Amino acid sequence: MADSENIILINERKVEVKNIQHDITLLDWLRNYNKITGTKEGCAEGDCGACSVIIADDGSDSSRPINSCLVRLGQVIGSSVTTIEGLGCDKNPHPLQIAFTKEHASQCGFCTPGFIMSGISLLNSNKKITDDTINDAISGNLCRCTGYSPIIKAIKSVANDRISKNDNQTINKNKKNKLGNVTYFKPSNLKELKNYLNDVKDFQFLAGGTDLNLYRPIINQKEDNIICLDSIKELNHIKHHKEKIELGGAVTIENFLEAIKSKMPQLIEILQRFGSPQIRNQGTIGGNLCTSSPIGDIAPILLVLNSDLKIFGRNGFKKINIKKFFKGYRKNILKKDEIISSLELPIANKKNKIFSWKLSKRYDQDISTISLAINIQIQDNIIKELYMAAGGVAETPKLLDKLCKKMVEKNFDDSIEFAIHNLDKFIQPISDLRGSSHYRLEAMKGLFRRLQICLRQDKESLSIMEV
């Protein structure tokens, strides 16, 4: 079997992708074409984790968990995929599978394969095995009948075990893959991308696809040309400078989280709540911004830090400030052939405090109803610098610059009281399924009250249960 064919390494076995009549998900291909049915379909939206698999770009040890229901098959050709069947069998089970039995961590069993894949991913990482890391690792997996305590005990009991791999096979990735009516182009650098931009007509960009792949089967009935961005070298770099961090547009949310841990730990919680590890390992910074959702969790942070974006297209590079990027509901300034190639994240002044909060119907793994990011400097109880941005209160992420001007150079208690009592003059949120206009306004006042308590008590953060 030649590597020039469409090959995926499934449980260390090369499998050719063939006889595909239309674009399908990795999950459907595993179950329907290969009868690898340990991977389950629950929600088909990336919420339940029953479809979790482990993927590595080239069969290497650099693996990560993803939701196979949110990945199109063309995205993973040339990659290595491990399913529950690749861990062990009834005669030779993996230690974690044994632990699930001993700790009574499986009842109906439907969710069990997904939990085990998430647990294996944590065990194979360099993270310390604690309640917090386990809770984060399985935060994207839902259990309806067993309960989470025995699952956590099972993972803890095998903290020193690792997945065994017989070899480290690699596969040559094709630059072009055709699956049914969809053609995937996979440039490895910006020069190749520019060539495709000049040659390919009627294309669509695709990075992680955690948002786009939910809608593509519905809205795209014609032939598609997909240009994948995730393998482009220049879009995956992370560079640490003295006063800023430079991140490529295809850097995943998970790698973004790791990059800021030591520099701006105040952002860890909001990025962990962005989504499960499966979502964070697939979704990208550039993709999140390009959806231009008014409730995107990253945009308010970038606004209060005054980030710059670098844009790449047929005509080369250009640089803009994040304030100029959003143009309307789900609209931005990018042309059809343009992408976010990188962004600069300024490191906040040590004198400043950074806060970033979101409210949602579920605490974890849910879309924001509202969010608020704050970059503030206080001297002798006087606000010297203040930048605030909110999500979910307008058709775009909104920089609250007019309100900030009213609050600067005043006592922070007085300024926050002013903001709470006059907030309706600065934001006019809409009503929708996630919350009414009245609720959003009152909830935002609650976040300002949380800010007030944090400043009074000199806390860097504050649990919602403490307010």
Quick description:
By secondary structure, the protein is of the alpha+beta class. It has helices at 26-33, 95-102, 112-123, 131-137, 148-157, 190-199, 212-219, 253-260, 268-272, 277-280, 285-290, 298-304, 401-407, 412-422, 437-457, and strands at 7-10, 13-16, 52-56, 63-67, 80-82, 176-179, 182-185, 203-206, 224-228, 238-240, 244-248, 308-313, 316-321, 326-328, 331-332, 339-346, 352-359, 370-379, 382-391, 398-399.
Q: Explain this structure to me?
A:
The chain is of the alpha+beta class. The chain has 3 domains: 1-167, Ubiquitin-like (UB roll) (Roll), CATH 3.10.20.30; 181-347, Uridine Diphospho-n-acetylenolpyruvylglucosamine Reductase, domain 3 (2-Layer Sandwich); 351-467, CO dehydrogenase flavoprotein, C-terminal domain (Enolase-like, domain 1). 28% of the residues lie in helices and 22% in strands. The chain contains 15 helices and 20 strands. It has helices at residues 26-33, 95-102, 112-123, 131-137, 148-157, 190-199, 212-219, 253-260, 268-272, 277-280, 285-290, 298-304, 401-407, 412-422, 437-457; strands at residues 7-10, 13-16, 52-56, 63-67, 80-82, 176-179, 182-185, 203-206, 224-228, 238-240, 244-248, 308-313, 316-321, 326-328, 331-332, 339-346, 352-359, 370-379, 382-391, 398-399. The strands form 5 sheets. The chain has a 5-stranded mixed β-sheet. The protein has a 5-stranded antiparallel β-sheet with strand order 10-11-16-12-13. A 4-stranded mixed β-sheet has the order 6-7-9-8, with no helix packed on it. A hairpin with a 2-residue loop joins strand 12 and strand 13 (316-321). Helix 2 packs across helix 5 and helix 14 (412-422) packs antiparallel against helix 15 (437-457). The longest helix has 21 residues, at 437-457. The N and C termini lie far apart (62 Å).
